[in-house]
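Page 42, continued from yesterday. The earlier attempt failed because a stray header line got pasted into the input along with the sequence. Redoing it now with the clean sequence only.
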Amino acid sequence: MSPYVAEFIGTAVLLCFGNSVNAATTLKYSYANGAGWIVTTVGWGLAVTFGVYAASAVSGAHINPAVTVSLAISGDFEWVQVPGYIIAQVLGGIVGASLAWLQYLPHWGKTEDQGAKLGVFCTAGAIDQKSANLVSEMLGTMILMFGLLMIGANQFAEGLNPLVVGGLIVLIGMAQGGSTGYAINPARDFGPRLAHFLLPIKGKGSSKWDYAWVPIVGPVVGGGAGVAIYGLAFNSTTSALGWACIAITAIAIFYAIIEEGKKK
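This time it went through. Structure tokens are written below.
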């Protein structure tokens, strides 16, 4: 199997399960409606686990453009493969989200809240303050990449690694997901947002493209900062791109703090 096909399948598995968890806990008349944030975070952690199981033997199971770019920044992945991985991941996200739509087909028309329906597919700031939302996505993905490299530095029983990665996703969701819904993955947000735009979802409303850049830029830059900080901490070195990601993250944090301080 091609690694690009593996990335497509792994990301489709991730989004099929993840978006279906969102649909189950959100859409009207679902038996799981109102199940809450713990169910959501555990569900997404398991979705990542099985997405990794689906692809890891063939492609390394990035299933996330931020992971792909970050590993290229750290020198652990070839830049020439980055575009193909990202395209496969986004396409997988579209297909996975579309399967979730089919799973709950009669529930969309029964759910009046357009924002809730959009939230099944993609993320948004709990408080619409894009500078802070950007920082939240940067920090979440920075910790994701730092954590993935820490996990990779340890030995686990064969087949256990994806479960540990899923546990990391659960923890990030519980600790940091309340501010933006923790996309921490551009394909997880952009692919399903595009599916929301294209699919004939009853009463769906806007796909909110004005926010779409946040879960793309934030994870890519934050992930780069994460691998750079790991490199500095454990190897005493990082690349010029790694330093750039650290600098951009620091500037974004400073700007968000200043903007928040100006509010009465």
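Notes: The mean pLDDT is 95.
Reminder to self: strip header lines before submitting.
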